[in-house]
Each structure stands twice: as C-alpha cells, then as structure tokens.
Amino acid sequence: MFTGIIEEAGKIVSFQPAAGAWELVVAAETVRQDAALGDSIAVNGCCLTLARQSAGQLHFDVLEETRRLTNFNAFRPGALVNLERSLRFGGKVGGHFVTGHIDTTGEIAAFEPRGKDHYLRVRVPGTFARYIVHKGSIAIDGISLTIAEVADDAFAVWLIPTTLQVTNLHSRRPGDAVNLEFDLLGKHIERLLSFRAT
Length: 198
Known about the structure:
Blueprint: E1 8-18, E2 21-27, E3 40-43, E4 46-54, E5 57-62, H1 64-69, E6 80-85, E7 104-114, E8 117-123, E9 137-140, E10 143-146, E11 149-150, E12 154-159, H2 161-166, E13 177-182, H3 184-196
C-alpha cells in the first residue's frame, strides 16, 4: 500500500530481458537508503519487489504481463521514473490509498503552464471513464492527484511547482503514456453493486 506522495524521481539504468523475467535497474538515492530485499517499491505507481541492490541502484524483476499493461514498454535508459516506498505502520497518509496495481494507461492530451501552475489533461480508455469523478482521487504514474475536470474520454488535473520538481512529470510531453490507478473505494462499490443487481 502506498500514498501517492512521490519521494524521488529515479533514473532508469537498464530495462532488458533476463532469465525468467525482465530486469529493471533504477538509480536512486532516497528510496534505496533503507531498502531491503523483498521490499515493495512503487515505480511509476506500479508495485514491484526489490530483488537485488548494487552501488546506488535498485534491481527489480518485471513480468511480461506488467510490461504489457503499463507504460513500462516505453522505458529507455536515462528516463525518469517516480519512486515511493510502501506505507509503514504509523506513517503519514498525505495523498490517498494507492495499491500499486495499475488499472490501465492513459495518454497525455495537453500539458501546459497556466499562470504559476501546470494543467495536465489525460485521455482515458472509454471503459474506464466511469471511475473518473470530479474532485475524486487518481494516481498518475503513482502520483496522488485530485481530478479537476471530467469529460467523456478525458480528465484534467492541476499541478503545483513542487509536484513538477519532485516527480518525473516535468519530462513528460503530449502523446506520452501514463499509468493510471483509479480510486480503490469506487472499484469496490461497483463490484458490490454488481452482485446486488443480479
């Protein structure tokens, strides 16, 4: 479980096929300081298990299914990824509860400064539009954000300067794919109501 409050933007060292899985190697500073093998770390919002460590680097095994369902298939050496350690007992929940299980990817439709803030609009596949709620929570590449605008096939959020500084969003452009995780509560309610309707 995570909060969507990104601790740092790590840099991809490599992402390539290995025996039995893909291996993702990320250079990090803050997140690796007390990391232990087997820890859960969110990489662009996707919960991964720390498999190995080397000098300044975190190593993860990534399933083909994970690569296929996330924006990992666009990973290139040097690209920035958002990193967050899992929530600890007694820790602060500054964002919202994020599981690290990506629902789908969206596409950046617009990303531009407006005054001192930045406006980000993301297209979402139609089957997932039902989870978009005005003023509701969403995780974009693992970042906890509040939905400001809702359309039939898209939503928009506003970003403060701090979010751009700490996360990888400053390197994103229209057309880029982003990982989306919708609010857990809404998905549970939908599932429960589906049984009631039968």
